[in-house]
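Write out structure tokens for Putative tick transposon.
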Amino acid sequence: MIAVYVCKARVASWYARKSLCPPDLQSLCGWMIPSEGHARRMCRILRAEWWQHVRVYKDLLRLACAKEASEARRRLLLKEWTKVSYHATEFLWSQVRPSLPKKKEVKGTGNVTIIGDQVVPDKFLQVLQLGPKFCLEPRLKQLDKVVLARTVAHRAEEEDRLRCVSECVDVLLKPSKDSRCSRRLGPLIDFCADSNLRILESDKEGHFVIIPENLYLEKATTAMDKNFREVSVDPSKIKSRALALMNEVGLTKVANEVKREKGLLLQAFFSVKTHKQNYPFRTIVSERRSWLNVISGYLQTNLAQLKLEDPFEVASSNCVVQVLQNNNPGGCFGFSIDIEDLYYSLPHVQLLKFVQQTIEGQMNELGFVESCKIPVASFLELLEFYLKSTIVQWQGRTVIQRAGVCIGSCVAPVLSSIFLSFVDRKINDNLGELALRIFRFVDDFWFSSIG
């Protein structure tokens, strides 16, 4: 039984590392497929339960051996049965291990877009082809490795702990090849700096883009001028007004967090729309280490609890596929519409009106007020102040978005969902006799003649 439950615990650990759902757990979920995070949590719970069983059976084994009269005989018997359980475990694991999902191979996107006529050496392209999400395990200091060895040994039986630590230290003394040697970024960074090149990430395709510095500045300026306008303001005075507003409405705790943040201005960076002609840039704003991040986090936490009624919104394309499979008589047609620069196109006046109507239309409006700790009017006042205070610093210029909310803001997704829920309901009310099915995912609409 010890061998069985040790193998069960190892299987649970294996699936948890792969973020996969084991067949036994999937059978309990039925036709629903757990998310990766839920599958990991369930596997960890199962692993803890199986290890608990292992500890119980080991305690029972000690009790069984304790019946012997001689102390030496008890130790010998326990050692023999422990050895038997170890070999049984390894034999059983050797049978189970080949049937588990294979370890995913590290693969890059296999693509690097080079804008311009710059020649990039193959050794640098091979590194960039690994993709933006590729990473190496963190480098541990020798002292940390020794501490880790003692942590691992603590899981072993008490009489085996010293041997476990000794064997771990012996492994540390052996020279090991560092996989980072072939993937060092220093030479790549030096090459880009010497060649006046910038490395950006593609907007949808998930690979790196290499672009000359002069072309980068040209496209970045075009992207900034499209959705931002230059302003002359004192960022410290805006922060002071924000603190005064929050203290006035009673958000003392949020005001204290805002006061601790030192960043006054937001920072902009860009991704490249490689799926579009001429590779335009998308402007993204980072709120990290700024006082605006505290306010947007507070607003997002409270807006996220609002229940929206949207006849068209779908969580993923799987919903559309299911409709096509179950209700497609054939001979149908369809077309799609994309909202250009959705976040930067939201009109503030109408947006605030829709947010107010959404809050007032909730079944538990008092619950929302209790959650945000301030009246609805004060919440809307703070939201309006935030939308007019997202000041961005770029290339020595101080700019603010012309309309809407910046991409990268914590509240941008929920505000767009609130706005489009009203738009979708209006469209749905005016369909009349048209036999159309409409689906929307974020800023993409798909119209179909499916009944």
